[in-house]
């Protein structure tokens, strides 16, 4: 079987050059025969062909055959469509449909075994796979002359440096190229064939022997048993084997008869024809015509799935809010190369009571939703954005909808945190290099597969990965998609898109481009405005808290545990934090009494009063910093305390101490010593530390990095098809031969046939376009624009005046004005082209 080349794929033959049976002779001709809907489908499936819009069908065919475009198209084929293309790459060119079918379905016993090993018959699935390759412009020609585009054949066919995905080696003709005629004749004689007069006929005779099942079976019957073992090791690939200078008798027997041919001085190769005979005609050991079924691991009642997802959604909202608020006052610094340091990631994970990969996911989710950003200062740090305040005021279902809506199309993947980039640098959360352009497609595809299962069913993860691998089997692409799919399952469960592994009602709405807040809202409990205060200085929130209560309680107490109910603990530090925020002791007593479902425990009241009594007795300001207090005995106590030594304190006055430390360090040091100082301004007023004091400037959300060109919409596709058709009309239309040309002059039809611009005199050009404007006819012109770019156009002149021609340009599908002095020539179209 030869691997011939198609050298005319993008060539535009003359209209009369179409094959007698109407079959196309080039890819361009095959594309030209498609209707507008089929061309639009091709451009939608391969959007890289639109950048820029091809000028005509010939340009479209040429671009469709470029290496980069073909590689991208092959990457998006499913496994059986790719197996079909791989079979065509090792088939004769052109390949009849029957030969292709035998390569995929086998012959004789192999065909029966292949049919039994698949859920769906290969013969039944082959038309679909072939239609996919045709639609993608990877295959053209009729069923009797199927041609794989040349670039795809070069990528998929075997070579000395690259084995074929099918495991097949070179043909007999390819393997014997360069072999001496004497050696070829020796092989022919050893195989029992008559001698020939030249090497070409000898190779043809050997190929005929290896492709004849009966004669080939008779030859193999003569082989020693050990020789069949050698062939069995090479038959499914790789087809190359290493031999010594004095090979064993079985190998020598095979080599003498051409069943093994020398590849180098130390290696032999199994010819493709021999391997196909041993395989029963199969190009692949296991054809996979049917997509693997996604197995169901567990089935749950849909109500339980939605309830579990709603619980996860509430937890996600609480986690994101806790994360962003923890960065309000002093967010982590931005690394010089961008992103979050490993130490800060660990610190954030500990604060969220999560592992580092999960913490990275919440950080990246908040960043994708526009709630976190870098402040852009000289000492750049991360912090909440102004959008965070608006997000917090939304109802819970709408807040979740904003998070889920940011997650699904995001190309940044938290799962890549900790991996290394091509330069060996570790990727950091919020840093560069985390974009994976395939992530949105994989996320959506995983959710689609979950949606196809019975409602409430969770999938077996391995079967889901097998299905995704079948849909995109190319190595590298398949591995990346498998990692992204595993991350998607984990992230969807954390976020509440799934519950117990099954797609939830809000997740289904998100997938179907509906508002997920509507199905989620009835599943969420109503916010409560009461807490249960307990004598051990804890408070229990029996559900999600209403916004004012949640804000104050988050300052007044620390979260001790989360779950169905949140437990808060009151400590001297948390009460002091509330006093620093501007609350007075009476405010806190009133707040607790108003929102407690039980009487306020006495220990809690004592705690508030005790901290309030000591709060503010010390005042810290900036000198470098200073401490002042009306109680000079208290200042003396601080000076005598050895723990104050690092602060560099000294007495300036009976009620004032100066410090070498800055105010923030001084405040922290005194609080660590058990005091409750308050910061003051230069006027002596207590500084109130508001929770929302620090916000970054308004920042745009990270823009997803698309995988290749964006998918075109219907308007662009329709306009592109019109432009290609119009350009094709200009490039292929038949022109009348001008009188000058008929009399022996140049230009006209001769130029049209050669693809050159028409050449006519200025007077003849003016007369022709004026006549066309009067009669409403269409003409073909050559035109050179102001940048010097030449083009051919088909126009219908409407007005000729002032040195310009105005008319409808069929090439651009719009009315345009052309300068007469830039028209190189003009010719009328043939009558059957008008």
Description of the molecule:
The structure is a single chain. The protein is of the alpha+beta class. 45% of the residues lie in helices and 12% in strands. The protein contains 36 helices and 25 strands. The strands form 8 sheets. A 5-stranded mixed β-sheet has the order 18-19-17-16-20, with helices on one face. A 5-stranded antiparallel β-sheet has the order 24-23-22-21-25. Strands 12-13-15-14 form a 4-stranded antiparallel β-sheet. α17 (302-326) packs across α19 and α18 crosses α19 (356-368).
Outline of the structure:
By secondary structure, the protein is an alpha+beta fold. It is built from 36 helices and 25 strands.
What Rg do the Cα atoms give? 39 Å
Strand line-up of the largest beta sheet: 18-19-17-16-20
What percent strand? 5-15%
What's the total helix number?
A: 36
Question: Can you tag this structure with a few keywords?
Answer:
disordered N terminus; five-stranded antiparallel sheet; 834 residues; single chain; 36 helices; 45% helix; alpha+beta
What are the SSEs and their pairings?
Elements: H1 27-32, H2 36-45, H3 57-64, H4 67-75, H5 79-89, H6 97-105, H7 109-117, H8 122-135, E1 139-140, E2 147-148, H9 150-156, H10 172-175, H11 181-190, H12 199-210, H13 213-221, H14 225-234, E3 240-242, H15 249-256, E4 261-262, E5 267-269, H16 272-279, E6 296-299, H17 302-326, H18 342-352, H19 356-368, E7 372-374, E8 382-384, H20 386-392, H21 396-407, H22 439-452, E9 457-459, H23 461-471, H24 477-495, E10 498-499, E11 502-503, H25 505-511, H26 517-520, E12 532-534, E13 538-541, H27 547-556, E14 558-561, E15 566-569, H28 572-580, H29 585-595, H30 602-614, E16 619-621, E17 625-628, H31 632-640, E18 650-653, E19 656-659, H32 663-672, E20 678-679, H33 714-732, H34 739-742, H35 749-754, H36 762-775, E21 779-784, E22 790-801, E23 804-809, E24 814-819, E25 823-828
Parallel strand pairs: 16-20
Antiparallel strand pairs: 1-2, 3-5, 4-5, 6-9, 7-8, 10-11, 12-13, 13-15, 14-15, 16-17, 17-19, 18-19, 21-22, 21-25, 22-23, 23-24
